[in-house]
Every structure is written in structure tokens, then in C-alpha cells.
Amino acid sequence: xxxxxxxxxxxxxxxxxxxxxxxxxxxxxxxxxxxxxxxxxxxxxxxxxxxxxxxxxxxxxxxxxxxxxxxxxxxxxxxxxxxxxxxxxxxxxxxxxxxxxxxxxxxxxxxxxxxxxxxxxxxxxxxxxxxxxxxxxxxxxxxxxxxxxxxxxxxxxxxxxxxxxxxxxxxxxxxxxxxxxxxxxxxxxxxxxxxxxxxxxxxxxxxxxxxxxxxxxxxxxxxxxxxxxxxxxxxxxxxxxxxxxxxxxxxxxxxxxxxxxxxxxxxxxxxxxxxxxxxxxxxxxxxxxxxxxxxxxxxxxxxxxxxxxxxxxxxxxxxxxxxxxxxxxxxxxxxxxxxxxxxxxxxxxxxxxxxxxxxxxxxxxxxxxxxxxxxxxxxxxxxxxxxxxxxxxxxxxxxxxxxxxxxxxxxxxxxxxxxx
Length: 420
Ligand SMILES: [Zn+2]
Fold this sequence. Notes:
Bound molecules: zinc ion
Low-confidence stretches: none
Strand order of the largest sheet: 6-7-8-9-10-11-12-13
Order of helices and strands: EEEEEEHHEHEHEHEHEHEHEHHHEHEE
Strand content: 25-35%
Oligomer: single chain
């Protein structure tokens, strides 16, 4: 009796009939097809132990020819204050500015906190069903929720133990000084699970770019954390804030590679020359951009940022909450959106676009050499209904199973509907 991949598995097991990409097929210089083959993959204690020629009759979990890809990662999401699990609610026409949103949150957070642990788990379940095993989640640190949002989210992650990982950003959503959040941020920064110090629109919310960023930088340095600042402001104050953050990263090399600006909408309004200049500066200072890939008449210059080597992270941001209801939870859908927006349509371009879902691992390098999975790699992957990466992005492939550090779950068995 061969257990099907629709069951759970952990520890030591073998997957057979696993499809892996093995190279590109060319017509002169052009990639016209992705070559694949079937393999047996042995997983032991969270890692890939062997990758062997397929043995269809092996005593093993049958992947039935499905494609194995690196698992997806969501690099900007808010797991702590979702409305997911509550009745449908579209965005309110009364909530237009960030300050109006803050006032609204001060009213609803006490209600949300009552069930936020269970609903964070549900939202994680949704992300998992779409093949995500890792997220960078911002978590509100504000005088209304105190550290409770953080505590509830950490409990949800403990409850999801061994199937989902997250890095946490302490997020002063209601302003550092606009509300009295600075003392709470100092407390949150000491929490081991916090990996990044967050922020929001230093100029429009706190009325002071330098003072707010200086506090954030010092908190990050004192506690050996990274930074990930929400910056919605377009125009002069937005650009000034980006330059100031670049300056701080140049002054403090330990922040390089650990400093991110989320949204950075100001970049979408620059001329192409200005965009190239700032992209070069961001790359040199190793300051990354995290984006939910918005449109609203403005398109983020992702190709230019990538061209200069800026680290671009992608996330769902809001999955059904009072800020937005457009996050689907599906990172393959984000990669598909990027491919559509920027015209990535050939086999090669689509295969590269998968990096925006897996962030950044791809099965094949640009020359078509197999680079994932390798023996010894952590067994964190998804099985999808697609023949290759390009098809997975273009058709937004259905995820059938996900494996996090060797723990395999069938996607349809992950609970995500209804409160526990
Ligand atoms: Zn956000």
C-alpha cells in the first residue's frame, strides 16, 4: 500500500514521481521549452537526503508527476489585524487618509484582539494553501493594543509550529510620536522574535523625518535588528525620507542588507533618469524595497530597481482587512501580476518571474543549470499542478502539497475556514 501525498508526512520518507526542472531547450538563442524529468526524493529530518532516478514502484509517497518548486515566501503581510474569518466588508469610503485609518483602528482593535490569535491562524492557513511557508509580518505596536497584537500573533505562530515560519516587524502603525508609541517600541524591540523595527510615514504622521528615523535607526542598532519602514508618501517628503534612510545605511554598515522601505510609492512618480539615480543609490547602500505591486494609475519601477541590483521583496500586504481587500494570499498570483504588468511573457521571462513568489530561489539558473533542489538543502517546497515554472506563473498553478522543513501537508487538508 503506497501512501498518497494527500496524507501528512514527517521525519523520514521518500517521494516518487516528483517532476524537477533539468534544463532549457533552445531554438538558437531563445529558450522555447523547459526540460523536466521524474525523480525519487528522500527526505530525512527536515532536509533532502538523496535525489535519485525515479523508481515508479518504490514504496513511497506518490507525487503523481507533479512539479516540485521552492515554497513561496510572502515578504510583506499583516497577520495580526486581519478581518479574515469575519463577514465580508469592503473598504469604507470614509477612510481615506492614514490618520483616518489610525482613528478607525483605535476603535476596532479592542474588538479584533478578542479573536486575533485564531484569525491569524486562519490567515496563515490561507497562505499555506497557496504554498507559502514563510512570511515577514508587520505587527501593530500602538497604545491601543499595547503589546497584545504581538503576543497574540506569537501565540498563533506557536500553534502553527513546524508548518510555518515568520519574521516579525514591530510596527508603530499609529505613529511613534503622533500617539505615544515610542516607549512601547522600546519594549517590543527587546522581544527575541522581533527581527525588524518598523515605521510609518515619518513626515505626514509624526511631522518629523529626521527625529523619527533617528529614533528608529538607534533602536535597530541598539537591539541588533533590521528596519522595514512603511512609506506611503509620494512627492518631496517621500523622496527625502528615502534619501535619509540611504544616508543612515551608508553611515551604519551593519544596517546594510537589513534596511527596507515598504511601498515607497514616491519612486513611482519620478522621471526615468531620477529613478535610475535613486535605484543606484539604494543598491549601493543595500537598502531594499518591499512592494505589494499596486497600480492605482501608478506602477512601481520594479524592472529598474532590479536592473541596478536593488533587493525587491513582494508581499500580499492586506488580505481582507480595513486597509484593503485585494491581497489574495497567493504569491504565485503576485508573480503572475508582475509578469503581466511588466510584459514578462516568454518561457525564459516567465520562468524568472517565479522568483517574486519564491523570493528568490529558482530551480534553474539563467543558463538553465539545475540549482535547486540539491542534496543537503532544507526540504521546503511545494508540489504544483504545472509542467514547469513558466506555466506555474502564467496559469497560477494550484498547489497540491507543501513541505516545510520536511513536514509535508496536503494543501486541501490545511484548516483555514471557520473559527476553531
Ligand atoms: Zn503594510
